[in-house]
# Entry
Amino acid sequence: MTEQIERARTFHSLHVKGNPIVLYNAWDPGSAKIVEKAGAKAIATGSWPVAAAFGYADGEKIPLELALDNIKRIVGSVDLPVTMDLEGGYGVDPEIVARTVTLALRAGAVGFNFEDQIVGGSGLHDIAVQVKRIEAAAAAVKASGIPAFINARTDIFLKAKPDAHDDVLLDQAIERAQAFEKAGAHGFFAPGLGDEGLIETLCKAIALPVNIIALAHVPPRQRLAELGVARISHGPVPYRQMAEWLEAKARQAISG
# Structure
């Protein structure tokens, strides 16, 4: 447990506004070892690529036991902090969320993403509901003795097209970030957000380190750093690029 505690502390320290940690998302032990070899400072999984690698759709379709076994194997294959995408915690009730977090920590994770969208439904959990869920996750972290990093995600921007992102959505995101921080979150994840002005305002408006996904419409790493971002992840992009390459090579080999 001492090593896990140290890795958790290291992972916290890597979140610096203006000097973001880059997480090139992996999906299994093999991909994690490759990312580690490339010079990564930490390993992060993404729910979509992990599910796809095992033949499942995203949205908590992969059995939790399989996802936990996968994270345990990843942790055992690298010498870096590992953070797990827990989606919505595999249940709405705070008690279920706490149990899921506890199992992830027992598997060796030192952090996790936890989203506010209603998995399997539509829309987002009300702030009051999500706060209770984050509080349960934070309580589970405290009880474990592992200072894990809770990366509270909002899907506000993913559920709207980039050209519809505006100050109204930003204000809603800021309100959630501030509530999530009080509930015990350590970071705020805003996937889909790519507008420079909105990103900069978000980073300045909240104390939590901000996580942005490096999608096609998002500014490059150096610009994100200048805007105050503390964490850049790549989500499903690495797996999709790998899958496209593999399919192209397979087609070429099969067709001769």
Q: What stands out?
A: The chain has one domain: 2-255. The two ends are 52 Å apart (CA to CA).
